[in-house]
Amino acid sequence: MIRFAKHGAPAGICSSAVLAPLALAVLITVSAVFGAGAARAVSDGTEVRSRAEAPWNSTLIIKGDGPLQERVTCGGALVTPRRVVTAAHCVSGMPLDELKRRIEVHVGARELSGDPGRTAQLTGVRAHPRYRLVPSPENPDSGTMSSATHDIAVLTLDRAVCEVPTLPVADEAARVNDPAVLYGHGLTGPSSRGDVLRRGTYRVRPTEECAEATPAVVDGESMMCGRGWQAEACLGDSGGPLVGYRSGRPELIGVFSFGMETAGEPCGTAGPNFFTEANAVHDWLVERLADPVEG
Fold it and tell me: What is the dihedral of CA 259, 265, 268, 274, to 10 degrees?
């Protein structure tokens, strides 16, 4: 069993983990970069005022020129100093060498235009072995309307990010009506880029209840559901952390996978959002986080 230090980091990787002073679409579609599947930000959420609120939030960005907020692809969470958890569909369909050339990870950025956070490169990617996209029964040829199962991946960074606390992974199932918060740098509207990190408040809802709102196939084994309060996930939020609180301390309870786009609705449409539940894949996550880190 992996042993966690004070802030969730495996003991021995960093000598200390202190709070740093202190995770929209690309103009080309993300599906064109990564293949099938949609990468969805927190539409109508509220801006995060302090970097200290979510220092472990991570943002996957396509390397290149131009403002960072125009190159956001997905979100994620730093769960150990060298490991980030995100959605598998954010990094599937492309060889590791290509991902290394095209993607970098920014940890702890609040306002991308003024504070890019800690930048790290990829050295490894492990998607859950049971991850797959599930075609829509109504429109099997639409990648955007596809759902997913076991939609989670672990990224290995080229350096340890020891300057910020990490986000512990929940080892208990989320309970119906528990409050939760989703973080993301995705679109805040049809064409509004997510420069400032935003938060959306959610309530955990029964997965079977939420499944009635979409024709998509919802995997009850690996997925959980949350409904936003005046906030919905949007393009660029895929892989973003759904954070619950146990005894007042944040923990990763889910990873955003898909929402009402599976019903053919536009970004920001009110309805359930679906997340890979951390507890449902906990054993696999623990094994991956305990894997030796090379490089």
Answer: -10
The rounded distance, in Å, linking the Cα atoms of 212 and 7 is: 38
pLDDT bin (cut points 50, 70, 90) of residue 16 is very low
Residues 6+ apart with CB under 8 A from 182: 42, 45, 199, 200, 202, 226, 228, 231, 233, 237, 240, 241, 242, 243, 256, 273
Taking only the tens place, the pLDDT of each residue in 41-88 is 454 578 888 889 999 999 999 998 888 877 888 999 999 999 999 999
Token code pair at residue 34: 């990564």
Distances (CA, A) of 191 to 25, 111, 187: 9, 18, 7
Q: Measure the CA angle with vertex 55, ends 52 and 59; round to 5°.
A: 140
Note the pTM of the prediction, 2 decimals: 0.84
Domain ranges of the chain: 30-290
Query: How far is Cα 108 from Cα 57, in angstroms, rounded to an integer?
Result: 5
Reading phi first (left if > 0) and then psi (alpha if -120 to 50, else beta), residue 290 is in alpha
**The CATH number of domain 30-290 is 2.40.50.140:** no
Say how far apart CA 30 and CA 182 lie, in whole Å.
20
State yes or no: pLDDT of 24 exceeds 80.
no
